[in-house]
# Entry
Amino acid sequence: MASKMITLNVGGTIYTTSIETLTCYTDSMLGTMFKAQHEDSGTRLDQSNKDELGRFVIDRDGLMFRFVLNFLRESSLTLPEDFKELGLLRREAEFYQIKPLIKAVGKLVDEAVDMIEPLTHIGERIYTKMASKMITLNVGGTIYTTSIETLTCYPDSMLGTMFKAQHEDSGTRLEPSNKDEHGRFVIDLDGPMFRFVLNFLRESCLTPRASEPCLTLPEDFKELGLLRREAEFYQIKPLIKAVGKLVDEAVDMIEPLTHIGERIYTKMASKMITLNVGGTIYTTSIENLTHYHDSRLAKMFKDPSNTDAQGNFVIDRDGPTFRFVLNFLREPCLILPKDFKELDLLNQEAGFYGITLLMEKCQELIYQRSLLASTPLGVNFDSSSTVVLTSMQAANHPGSFTMAVENEFIKLDVGGSLYTTSRSTLTHYPKSMLGKMFSGRHSTACDERGRYIIDGDGPIFRYVLNFLRRSKLNLPEGFKEWDLLTMEADFYQIYELITAIALLREERKRCKIQETEFIELGFCSGEKCFYSGSAVTLKEIPALHEFTKRKTFIYSGYNTSFGKVLFESAGFDNDLMLIFQQIASVGFEMVNTNATRAWVFKRKL
# Structure
């Protein structure tokens, strides 16, 4: 505790720690860097390395620094289960030159620890970079801090052109109107995706020009399509090429910078606005929000007066899903992560905002999904259709929306997660705990920031709040926290939600059974073997299919699609391992076996 405390701004993410922690490994870059803070050293960091609030700036990945800092605190590496970003953590460990951390990560990725670049060499590059002017960006509502050197790493890119103008006398100089109220430069693009763009630029600055910079993404990264679009917009040719390799396609012709530049600077001139969507903050242009003039969203911003205490325009809808709505408005194509689980919710939100083209695209994807699942369209699609109809009816009665806009907005702190919603939403079910709490008949305490504190599960409250907003339960595919959600619904005494959870859970169980295929294979009496399952699946297992064709066999209760095949067992043992391999290759896994040498396999459809 006696150690001097220090606040860091790592790529826009704020941390507070001690000098003792940062200098734990004296031969690391951080050890060298902050030892200089209280010693008379030629490498002393001057005030230019601080932001406007006096925090020391490090131009690296902010989210990943959490694990670096925890390692420095404990001298042991603790990561979440199923951690997906070992590659990026390794790169950060190498940048900070923390040898024990490099070794610990190396063990996890099961590879030899590479030769660490000498600290004197990388140190020169780091301190050269430290001398570069730092700048804070607001990318679609997400905050980043980086250097001018990083942003202008590729001078012919959009970012290179844009920020070169910051310290040169150029006709394309960015005006102060491109800044938000805190002086941060605004870029009206996807905020979370910019993290990977910025990390690529940082690596490029530290990579010799003769080498290709490293694109490091999480394992099982789901948004290559969106990253590709962002790289094309920023006109970073090496990044376009790197992403192109991953998606196994030829690099498309890049639109000339002069052309896309006109669009960028025209867009920059548009009035920017900050939104508070259910507690999630976004920054975009009025031009984007009013792109579809007849949508309800466009009508909201004809008179954007419904603001919170910070001046953000409030929309009482699902915050995380609005990211995909906003990206669609920025560029009229729908790009979603692989295995996107919330199509029904996105369809509902598109219906609320009255964006007809987005609704059509969502419904097309929902229909395609139902065909791939080989099951009838279920409750979610029918309910989504109802919601779309309801939203279109509401669009014809704008007065109903005006009443909602004029309603009092309330900020909640639920177990540390922040939400913004309306009093009418919270009192939608008057007999519930929330209905009674916010009815106005009882005094309810809030903290010094005006937030009402509820000691419940923060992330799960998102689904509770969405149910209150539309009286419809929509959960991601593969949702696993049924018991917790039921417990929270019981805590809030929303009995309609408890009923909805039970019904949807039962519906999902029925669908899950329909979406699973079983086959059985084994020996039976009288020197016979059997296969029980789909005739179509049998053809997917060539060794088994060929074996049954060339031996005497009998159909037992078999039709054109499903049944049981009996055949002679002579020679079957010789082909058994090959048959097992082919069964596994088409997605089956063994779920049961017994002493009579029979095996049951299943796969998801």
Remarks:
- The first helix runs from residue 19 to 22.
- The longest strand covers residues 516-524.
- Residues 407-513 form a domain with the Potassium Channel Kv1.1; Chain A fold (CATH 3.30.710.10).
